[in-house]
Amino acid sequence: MRCPFCSSDETQVKDSRPTEDNTAIRRRRACAGCGARFTTFERVQLRELTVVKKDGQRTPFERDKLERSVSIATRKRPVDPDRIDRMINGIVRQLESSGDQEIPSDKIGELVMEGLAQLDSVSYVRFASVYKDFREAKDFEEFIGELSTNVTT
């Protein structure tokens, strides 16, 4: 593992333990070059996934990109980070176990929308505004109207 501070390849694992939800291994590492300490996570990856975008472009699936999107939607919201991590783990597991190697970006977006709807309604609307490409306030009004109708029924 390369040190993120000095780029040395001489790092040593000091401690390993499973994460609370047992979906990853947390490793504390120390760099022999600069002495810095850092943490890495090791997760099981069942298969290489490819995201098929709306324009047909294919890119490798990146869990970090999914985490960033959800992080932006939940920023400054009272949502437990463990619940967010469990939601992301669940989405990744669903994608990996679907049997499909190529996943349409729409499918990922819908899974995130479902997860955020369960976590926090404001985060859900934030994500939806980007995912559904809201252009003006009227788009928000219509979406909130649909959301309110679905909640009351």
UniProtKB/TrEMBL annotation:
Domain of life: Bacteria
Transmembrane segments: none
Pfam families: ATP-cone (PF03477), Zn_ribbon_NrdR (PF22811)
Keywords, ordered alphabetically: ATP-binding, DNA-binding, Metal-binding, Nucleotide-binding, Repressor, Transcription, Transcription regulation, Zinc, Zinc-finger
One annotated GO biological process: negative regulation of DNA-templated transcription
InterPro entries from the UniProt entry: ATP-cone_dom, NrdR-like_N, RNR_NrdR-like
Zinc finger (unnamed) in chain: 3-34
A molecular function GO annotation: DNA binding
Domain ATP-cone: 49-139
Cofactor dependency: Zn(2+)
Manner of cofactor binding, per the entry note: Binds 1 zinc ion.
Family, as annotated: Belongs to the NrdR family.
Function per UniProt: Negatively regulates transcription of bacterial ribonucleotide reductase nrd genes and operons by binding to NrdR-boxes.
Protein name in UniProt: Transcriptional repressor NrdR
Designated gene of the protein: nrdR
